[in-house]
Specification:
CATH architecture: 4-Layer Sandwich
Shape: globular
Number of helices: 8
Radius of gyration: 18 Å
Distance between the termini: 12 Å
Length: 267
């Protein structure tokens, strides 16, 4: 059966007086629910410079986790996550129309990771990230929805120039500004010993993949690893809110697929 250990940490940083990051999770209450729903982890980063970043991020996390808990048992995660993110986007967008918020803008990033059997599905909008750490090496699963990343893909700038660009935090996709949003979604097969790290840009702007891998590969409790990742990033800079969720895979349940549906492999 799929078994994971997780921990999370968040820090205001050295400059901000409020935290516009938000985290959420859904942990199944039984073996049956682990198979019917699975686990969900999510991180959101309210867009700084707008009026209500903390409201946007908290709203997105609340809608996502609530929707996941109420999803039809056995729903395909590859279709469920983008649907829930669209619902979260609609909720953030509608919040701008509420009487107490009218005329005030809000937006947020969102990265979500759902796990069931031996599969992880990652869906995201914005520049909050998911990394897979396996055998001491980190791999970035998500691709930032930023102006500079689009320029990189077009060959207009190099990857090395992104870190020095004044435009590196300009988002081309986020939750809230528009009625509809298109998340990117991918799936991967997970193994015992894998570690998944969800982070806001306050963390991955400061730590290289090698540093993330080194800290996440330690034989420590997932919550302690999350605290170490955040503390190290804040130590280096601390100009932004900084958040990490760490999910360590302890065991998986291998499945096959038949007509789009999972079935348990014979022992």
């Amino acid at each position: 059966m799929l078994d994971v250990q997780f921990g999370e940490a968040s820090d205001f940083g050295k400059v901000r007086t409020n935290n516009e990051d938000a985290v959420g999770s859904f942990v199944p209450a039984s073996r049956q629910q682990a198979r019917s729903h699975g686990f969900l982890f999510a991180v959101a980063d309210g867009v700084g410079g707008l009026d209500l970043g903390e409201v946007a991020s908290a709203t997105a996390i609340s809608v996502l986790t609530d929707g996941f808990s109420k999803a039809q048992p056995g729903a395909m995660l590859i279709g469920l996550l983008p649907r829930l993110i669209q619902q979260a986007n609609a909720a953030v967008h509608d919040s701008t129309l509420a009487p107490e918020h009218q005329g005030r803008k809000m937006a947020t990033t969102l990265v979500a990771c759902a796990l069931r059997y031996d599969q992880a599905v990652i869906s995201h909008v914005g520049d909050s990230r998911c990394y897979l750490v396996r055998e001491g090496q980190a791999r970035q699963i998500t691709q930032d929805h930023t102006l500079v990343n689009e320029q990189r893909k077009l060959g207009l700038i190099s990857g090395g120039q992104i870190a020095d660009s004044d435009m590196r935090h300009v988002l081309i996709r986020s939750l809230g500004p528009e009625m509809f949003v298109s998340p990117d979604t991918s799936a991967l097969t997970i193994r015992p010993g894998d570690v998944l790290v969800l982070s806001t840009d306050g963390l991955h702007d400061e730590l290289s993949m090698a540093e993330i891998a080194a800290i996440a590969s330690q034989k420590k409790d997932a919550a302690q690893i999350a605290r170490e990742l955040v503390a190290r990033a804040v130590e280096i800079d601390g100009a932004d809110n900084t958040t990490a969720q760490v999910i360590r895979v302890r065991s998986v349940e291998q499945v096959g697929m038949y007509r789009g549906r999972p079935y348990r492999m014979p022992a």
